[in-house]
Input
Amino acid sequence: MAVVLGIETSCDETGVGIVVDGRLAGDALASSMAEHARYGGVVPEIAARAHLEALMPCVNEAFAVAGLAPSDVDAVAVTAGPGLATALETGVAAAKAFALAWDVPLYGVHHLAGHVAADTLEHGPLPERCVALIVSGGHTSLLRVDDLARDSITHLGDTRDDAAGEAFDKVARLLGLAYPGGPSVGRAALDGDPHAIAFPRAMPRSHDFSFSGLKAAVARHVETGLVSVADVAASFQEAVVDVLTGKAVAACREHGIDTLVMVGGVAANHRLRELAAERCAAAGITLRVPPPRLCTDNGAMIAAVGGLLHAAGAPACSLELSIDPSAPLTRASINRSRSPAPEYREDLPRGRR
Ligand code: KG4
Ligand code: ZN
Output
């Protein structure tokens, strides 16, 4: 039996999860979202301070829910990037302290690999290969995933500008809806006509994405003042989910892959789940989407990656593990150590050494 504790602090959610042999045993989540709402986006220093305050209560809660104790833990996994530097540092520092104190291996995990692995907690091991659509606040990527713990990850398409979640957040602001924008646009869209406005679908023949033109089109529409918020929300949402599902299904077809895994915060979107299910069924593709609470950031998904790395016998990280705020997604693990300190230089003035 392998018990892995996972810690996620890359943005505004403090997530702790405990995974036992690939199954979620207990987790806890705290969010500083409300503290950022009046700024319209996440303030890194506020997020970092909130992580410091929430981390130990979340760890204790996850253990209580799982009915386990620190002495049961076989490995610790932590998001090492990408994300906000000061926020990542809090989680990595805590994970190092636990790994040292409990004398267990430490695994640095790529946040987006965590999103993909989240689905294994609900639907079991991933197939030999699949296409993954990651749609979060910071990323929109179409990937070919083989063995998540052992193989490198191939990018089939990425966004050229805004991420899908970012587009939801910006359009929410244009429409005067609450932050975070995804859920509030989704709610407003329920009363609107998705075909009221023919918003553009960018880059139709590519696996890459672009949402800045769509955002600009929404802004132009809002400027006319003649719009129903519900119709704009519904038409905007339809344009986004049409593009996402269309490209994901095309990528599966082109690469002869019959499983699509859809993950990340935007995968919580009701209309995206509905249209993806419809189009995958028509194309004979098996669709896997985690339940909404595992789509948004959480600690269990990081523990899930840790469990896969541990089971695959991946090398553990040293306590020199460094955060990588802009880590590209090439592998599930991040095993980067701090570059050596610069040599002491007598000739440099104090403060510039
Ligand atoms: O994956 P996530 O929790 O954090 C990142 O790693 O970015 O994704 C957050 C993003 C935000 O942009 C949020 O507006 C969006 O996911 N989101 C949604 C929904 N729930 C969250 N977008 C559309 N519909 C939703 N129901
Ligand atoms: Zn995320």
Remarks:
- The chain has two domains: 3-117+296-311, 128-289.
- The domain at 128-289 is CATH 3.30.420.40 (Nucleotidyltransferase; domain 5).
- Residues 348-353 have pLDDT under 50 and may be disordered.
